[in-house]
Amino acid sequence: MKLQRNTILITGGTSGIGYEFAAQLLALGNTVLITGRNQAKLDQAKQRLPQLHTFQSDVSDPAAIQALFEQVTAQFPALNMLINNAGEMHKLNLQDPALSVFDVTREIDIDLAGPIRMVQQFLPHLQAQPTAAILNITSGLALVPFPLAPVYGAAKAGLRSYTQALRVQLQNTRVQVFELVPPAADTPLNTRFSNGQDLTKLIAPKDLVAGTLQGMEHNTFAMYPGLAGMLRIMSRLAPDFVLKQLSKGVAEAFAQPQPANQVSAR
Ligand SMILES: NC(=O)c1ccc[n+]([C@@H]2O[C@H](COP(=O)([O-])OP(=O)(O)OC[C@H]3O[C@@H](n4cnc5c(N)ncnc54)[C@H](OP(=O)(O)O)[C@@H]3O)[C@@H](O)[C@H]2O)c1
Questions:
Q1: β-pair type (175-180, 53-56)
Q2: What is the best residue among 19, 58, 59, 189 to mutate for testing ligand 1's pocket, by most ligand atoms within 8 Å of CB?
Q3: Which residues are catalytic?
């Protein structure tokens, strides 16, 4: 896949990995469009990268996806690449009686249904282009359950399965299907998730994206940078061991406060 002179739509391009894709793809000479829900963050991104085109759109809302499609294809008929990047990750204690249906389905709507709906909406347009591509951003946590964020892992595992099936179905078409399986990276998503832990040892979005673009240029269809490569091997060789490692901290994170009479009985 050539990464110059394309017209590329990135969902969730205002921070982290999506913003870095936008910056590097602009620098390579592409037309880049980004989405996000927060208009102030879209404006900030546009200030930092004035050539960007920004669209406020919520990937979990099917009506917003249709409106986005109409706007984008009217203004940018040469659109030939879709990067499904928008995502959220939440710590969820499934025994918490206060959890709502929204709490336990939000990541399905954003991280799984969102990309599937985007592909369904944009695929006929992509198929009409001389060359086209879809890049889905899954996660190392698609490879093994992650008990701290159980719905996130389920959504990403679903997206990975869908992406592999989509690649098979589109193999004799002009639309190439790529998957990036990132390891934990130093982005706002992790800052929110990890409650102030030092994230600077994690892979920087800049390096993650530079490596991914190199991979795409060489038609590497599934990319497992850094620790994601190790997780891929370990999840095949020793899945129970990996699950045990990723289960550490769950008891502490979701510890129930003991009733007062039990505490005083000690
Ligand atoms: N960081 C990691 O360690 C890591 C590891 C593996 C995979 N990933 C995946 O990489 C992708 C990017 O994550 P990141 O770490 O760069 O996160 P981030 O910095 O929090 O960025 C997420 C982006 O998605 C947008 N977004 C979130 N929900 C949206 C929605 N419903 N509709 C439209 N836009 C939405 C956000 O903007 P608004 O909030 O304004 O909408 C923001 O632009 C995600 O799919 C994530 O699951 C991240």
A1: unpaired
A2: 189
A3: 152
